[in-house]
Design brief:
The complex is a heterodimer of chains A (801) and B (360). Chain A is 25% helix and 29% strand. Chain A has a seven-stranded mixed sheet with strand order 28-32-33-39-38-37-36, sandwiched between helices. In chain A, strands 3, 4, 5, 6, 7 and 10 form a six-stranded antiparallel sheet that branches. In chain A, strands 12, 14, 15, 22, 23 and 24 form a six-stranded mixed sheet that branches. With 801 residues, chain A is α+β, with helices and mostly antiparallel strands. In chain A, helix 7 packs across helix 8 and helix 10 crosses helix 12. Chain B has 360 residues and is an alpha+beta fold. Chain B folds into two domains: 101 residues; 174 residues, BirA Bifunctional Protein, domain 2 (2-Layer Sandwich). In chain B, helix 2 runs parallel beside helix 5, helix 6 packs across helix 12 and helix 9 packs across helix 11. The chains are: A alpha+beta (801), B alpha+beta (360). The interface between A and B is large, with 99 and 91 residues.
């Protein structure tokens, strides 16, 4: 909300600097977002009067005005069509500055010397693009500084009012808040309603059919008005507050809304059928056209202001087109009501209309303020638009809203806040906030207070404690640490391991990514080809088709990252993501969520260097990562199991198994899938269930004795048919070696002429070890012999010497 | 090898024997001049070889009269030992010179790049989140996570968001379509605060918990909005927890993350689930409080929201608000990371451009 300081000062005497005021408001919960000084550049602009207008000798569309601006008269060339003799205007005299910072000097315009400029609203920073100049009020004094008269260059505070403080959504409300903070007094606008016409209830009636949604409805009527522009001072205040002036009648309603916080609506009373207003809920399927010309479909939860022929306003949200005030309107019915905040909020959200009125109604206006606001506005209308005010107001208040009483225990306040707050200070502060101290009844330590109806946020003791803290000053409360029972901060095993897994993966050269968890339905479907049907979680209100579902796997997210980088010339990408995937399940209210690790490798794993050639990332790179992960958590039984996935290479696709449990999968992505994503061949990917993986393996490693005796290394080279897998060979080696074999490691794989087509040569390093004594060479050799025999018999292997 | 013989200790028996002395001086000169291993070997042979000059002296012993033999033997052996010592020294010296020479002859270019070693980076958001977690781990908090797809009950209702109140529409919610369940009952959580309710519902105080994680709001991505972002929620519930404790804890946190010299400011604010509520600002570390574009010329940066847990929330989880009190706070991880690292656009965090990721 924007608050012109000059306007605010009408209701409270502010002595302090505006910056101090802003700090005070901010530190007590009314955040001052900015302080601006609209029109602060303007200087030397003076109020003048056009004495005479002459044709310009050399230009058809220009005229020469003789203008008196007090200290002197001068001739000014002007092109605006709306000038007329005796108009009061803002004159930029020679040497003056406009809002945009432009300096005005005497200059010759097509052969005529112009001694200044007559300003438009835009040039003064207070109007939109208009073709004409700004016409001032007739009683503006010639020779007075324009900026001073209209308070230009004075501070306008922009406040961020939290949703619990509707009482601060007005100038008087802010004045009241400042008064409570500083101990000074504030005042309401002073006026008297000059009633001249007959009593309103002889000519108009109001009937409330739904008193829950409309507890109070006040109406006043004025006749014989002339709809025109409102005076400049009012237009200026509205503009500085962020509201566009429309006409004197509508401006009056907006002005009083800004002033007192009560939204008002002006109907063209002659357009209300039978001079009768009925407040009721909309019927199912009912429609109405609002002021903005939009046809609105309504439901039973929406409240309407109707006449006997149908809706004339969407209560608290927007007026109807059919009763809108126009230039020919002569008679006004002014509405000042209290509507149920949730109802207005619901309707305005449902129809997606936020108006100044609905903004206030849905937060809660002061039900006690309705009559005063109506009086204020109708009197202003009379002053600005003429006419006669009907005597009395219609004030239907079937559901009276009573002030709330609250007991406050000062001890409790001190306990919650951690600061000793004096009882007497509490009482005086509450009174400054407008609360009444109740005598008697409240037992013991407690003090009883009656809360004014403009503070709907104060309902409970804790609400008053908040007020105490706010006014006492958060900065005054000493900072402490909880003197609580001893405790140790600690990560769980899974949390600790998740961290160390991240360390491991980054150490291996992978970059962590974080993706939006939404993907398109199509992209989800690419990765549901493992036989089991995966049901995705669908959003009811997605931002776009690209973000319609929650990811069922991490793959689409990983591939999106590859594509993003590949398209920017980054071909070598090794990434991982730890994030949740979502799957539909019928047995629970919430969908299934699983924390997964996803890895994708594209391009070179190691770049070409000056003496080493590049190495592509491939299936075996990914397998190496898997093996490092197993080692990290000392998982002994991790293994791979061949599988099939529509999105993986038919051969390079495996499940990641530990102890019979499938923890995840990895594989080379299918070339056709990669083509569809416009990615290069050879991308490998892994997905692993972290909820399972992070708790597997040895939790605390136990010391094993370091071998004291030397081991014997022997190399073994064997030729086997291509189709024999290395793992099979190793199994045979192990099963024939006896107890002395400590480890087997493949260190060479060779195919070529020397071994013949259909065969491959494998070279292993075997380490033999005796745990309790030095191993004899013959023992190793005899074990080796058994291995060789085994390989020959079982695998038809040839031994290479 | 010391080049001057004067610095050398020559045993007395050699000095007093004219022949031996002469021989020693000559040998010294020869050894000194030897330019390489081969020459040195020749010298060794010439003196200590089978027919060497020293060997000759020792062989002559047999022909000497018995009473001269001990003295002559002593001289001969002493001479042999001395020459061996000198030869050894010279050999070491020659080797050193040779090695040094070889090392200096080989060509190296130390400006060649170091060998490739893998390097990956944690995502900035993860790193920041961990940094925040560590501060609270140090204060004795534990970490509990909750579901990202959440019930409206936990996300709003039990946190005292009134139905049809504008405070609920402050957060634009993604709804999850679920068969057989009314629309709006299952949502993507809009903040990490539902974890408060879940933890309190299942456990008793004292509770000192933080809960990091992803949150979702239906905002179209732009420089300052994102449909997905990260928060760290925290709360402490026990007997006698005060607003002063909230202040102390968050001041400690803010200084741990943004620097010891930071000023910390608590401003009253409104959150449905805390009362009193406070927004926490730190003095702007970019302009040191002077006012700049980042702090919008206020000198302060807003970093988190907090407050005393509303008694209404306690009553939802069955705690007696007269017995227990507590505070809660929540902060946006992206905001903290972006402030600390000067990142201008929220979207960078989720584009995963390697040129961005590897900067942190």
């Amino acid at each position: 909300m924007k608050v012109p300081l000059e306007w605010l000062k009408e209701y409270v005497d502010i002595e302090m600097e505006v910056e101090r005021l802003a700090d005070l408001l901010t530190n007590t919960g009314t955040e001052v977002v900015s302080i601006e000084y609209p029109g602060k550049e303007i200087s030397g602009v003076t109020i003048g009067i056009i004495k005479e207008i002459h044709e310009h000798p050399h230009a058809q569309n220009l005229r020469v005005c003789k203008v008196d601006w007090g200290e002197r008269e001068g001739e000014i060339v002007c092109g605006a069509p709306n000038i007329f003799p005796h108009a009061k205007v803002a004159v930029a005299t020679p040497g003056s500055t406009l809002a945009c910072g432009r300096k005005i000097m005497e200059e010759e315009i097509r052969g005529v010397k112009s001694q200044g400029m007559i300003c438009s609203g835009q040039e003064l920073g207070i109007g939109e693009e208009e073709s004409g100049i700004l016409i001032l009020d007739m009683d503006d004094p010639v020779g007075e500084d324009f900026a001073r008269r209209y308070h230009l260059g004075e501070a306008v505070l922009e406040l961020d009012i939290t949703p619990n403080r509707p009482d601060c959504l007005s100038i008087v409300g802010i004045a009241r808040e400042i008064a409570a903070l500083t101990g000074i007094t504030y005042r309401y606008p002073s006026f008297e309603v000059e009633e001249e016409a007959e009593p309103i209830d002889e000519h108009f009636s109001v009937e409330i059919l739904d008193t829950d949604l409309c507890p109070r409805y006040v109406a006043r009527m004025i006749v014989g008005i002339t709809v025109t522009d409102s005076p400049l001072w009012m237009q200026m205040r509205l503009k500085l507050s962020g509201i566009r002036p429309l006409s004197n009648v509508v401006d009056c309603t907006n002005y009083v809304m800004l002033e007192l916080g009560q939204p008002l609506h002006a109907f063209d009373a002659e357009k209300i059928a039978e001079s009768r207003i009925i407040v009721r809920r909309a019927r199912r399927g009912e429609v109405m056209v609002t002021l903005d010309g939009v046809k609105r479909a309504l439901g039973e939860e929406d409240l309407l202001i109707c006449d006997p022929s149908g809706p004339i306003a969407l209560a608290g949200v927007m007026g109807g087109e059919n009763t809108e005030v126009s230039e020919t309107t002569r008679k006004i019915l002014l509405e000042s009501a209290y509507f149920s905040p949730p109802a207005i909020n619901r309707t305005s959200r449902k129809l997606d209309i936020t108006s100044e009125a609905s903004y206030r109604f849905s937060r809660g206006v002061d039900p006690s303020g309705a009559l005063m606001a109506a009086n204020r506005a109708v009197q202003l209308m009379k002053e600005l638009a003429g006419g006669m005010i009907y005597a009395n107001a219609i004030d239907q208040y079937p559901r009276k809203i009573h002030p709330v009483n609250i007991n406050l225990r000062p001890m409790r306040a001190s306990q919650i806040l951690g600061a000793e707050i004096e009882r007497s200070w509490i009482v005086s502060t509450m009174q400054a906030l407008g609360l009444k101290r109740l005598q008697g009844e409240s037992g013991g330590d407690a003090i009883g207070f009656e809360v004014p109806t403009f503070r709907p946020d104060l309902e409970r003791e804790i609400d008053l404690i908040e007020e105490i803290a706010r006014i006492y000053g958060y900065w005054e409360i000493p900072a402490t640490l909880p003197a609580s029972r001893a405790r140790a901060g600690k990560l769980s095993l899974a949390q600790r391991r998740k961290r160390s897994l991240s360390q491991l993966l980054t150490g291996l050269g992978l970059n962590e990514v974080i993706s939006y968890a939404f993907v398109s339905s199509e992209k989800n479907r690419y990765f549901s080809g493992d036989g089991k049907e995966i049901k995705p979680v669908r959003l009811a209100n997605p931002l776009s088709e690209e973000m319609a579902e929650m990811r069922t796997t991490l793959y689409p997210c990983l591939l999106n990252v590859l594509v993003h980088n590949f398209n920017r010339g980054i071909d070598d990408v090794a990434i991982f993501e730890m994030g949740r995937i979502f799957r539909e399940r019928s047995e629970e209210k919430l969908p299934e969520e699983k924390l997964m690790l996803g890895i994708a490798l594209m391009g070179d794993w190691e770049p070409r260097q000056w003496d080493v050639s590049a190495r592509r990332a491939d299936f075996y790179t990914m397998k190496g990562i898997w093996e490092r992960m197993l080692e990290e958590f000392r998982i002994k039984d991790g293994r791979l199991k061949k599988t099939e996935r529509s999105y993986f290479h038919p051969q390079l696709a495996v499940e990641l198994i530990n102890g019979g449990e499938t923890l995840g999968e990895m594989g080379a992505l299918h070339p056709l899938l990669l083509k569809r994503w416009e990615l290069p061949d050879g991308v490998v990917a892994m997905q692993l269930d972290l909820d399972l993986f992070l708790t597997q393996g040895v939790k605390e490693a136990i010391y094993r004795e370091i071998p004291k005796y030397p081991s014997i290394h022997m190399d073994l080279s064997v030729v086997v048919p291509e189709k024999v897998e290395v793992e099979t060979v190793i199994d045979v080696i192990r099963s024939h070696a006896g107890e002395l074999l400590d480890s087997v490691r493949l260190f060479d794989l060779y195919r070529g002429e020397q071994v013949g087509e259909g065969y491959k040569s494998l070279a292993f390093r075997l380490v033999f070890l005796h745990p309790r004594r030095t191993l004899k060479e013959e023992e190793a050799k005899s074990s080796m012999q058994r291995i060789l025999n085994g390989l020959r018999e079982r695998l038809d292997a040839r031994i290479r010497e | 090898m010391v080049e001057s013989l004067e610095d050398r200790v020559i045993p007395e028996e050699i000095r007093e024997d004219a022949e031996a002395r002469e021989l020693a001086l000559q040998a010294w000169e020869d050894i000194r001049r030897a330019a390489n291993e081969a020459e040195l070997e020749a010298i060794r042979v010439a003196y200590l070889g089978k027919k060497g000059k020293v060997t000759e002296i020792l062989q002559r012993l047999k022909s000497l009269p018995a009473q001269e033999r001990p003295q002559a033997g002593k001289v001969g052996n002493s001479l042999k030992k001395l020459l061996e010592e000198w030869l050894g020294e010279k050999r070491t010296s020659l080797e050193r010179v040779l090695t040094e020479k070889t090392l200096r002859e080989e060509l190296f270019d130390i400006s060649l790049p170091g060998r490739y070693l893998p390097r990956g980076r944690r995502h900035l958001i993860s790193r920041t989140m961990e940094e925040i977690e560590d501060v609270f781990l140090g204060l004795g908090y534990e970490i509990v996570e909750g579901p990202e797809a959440e019930l409206d009950y936990y996300n709003f209702q039990a946190l005292n968001f009134p139905e049809d109140h504008p405070s609920k529409s402050m957060q634009d919610t993604f709804f999850i379509h679920r068969e057989g369940i009314p629309l709006g009952e299952v949502i993507l959580r809009t903040h990490t605060s539902p974890v408060q309710v879940r933890v309190m519902e299942s456990r008793k105080p004292p509770l000192f918990v933080i809960s990091p994680g992803k949150c979702y709001r239906s905002d179209v991505p732009d420089a300052t909005h994102s449909p997905m972002f990260h928060q760290v929620e925290g709360f402490a519930v026990d007997q006698g927890i005060t607003f002063g404790d909230l202040k102390g804890t968050l001041e400690y946190f803010a200084r741990a993350i943004f620097g010891e010299e930071r000023q910390v400011r608590f401003r009253p604010h409104f959150f449905p689930f805390t009362e009193p509520s406070a927004e926490v600002d730190v003095s702007c570390f970019i302009c040191e409080g002077e006012g700049c574009r980042i702090c919008k010329y206020t000198g302060w940066l807003e970093i988190l929201g907090s407050g005393m847990i509303d008694p209404q929330v306690f009553s939802y989880v069955g705690y007696d608000p007269e017995r227990y009190s507590g505070f809660a706070f929540g902060m946006g991880v992206e905001r903290i990371a972006m402030l600390k690292h000067g990142i201008p656009d929220l979207r960078f965090n989720f584009e995963n451009d390697l040129r961005f990721l590897t900067q942190f």
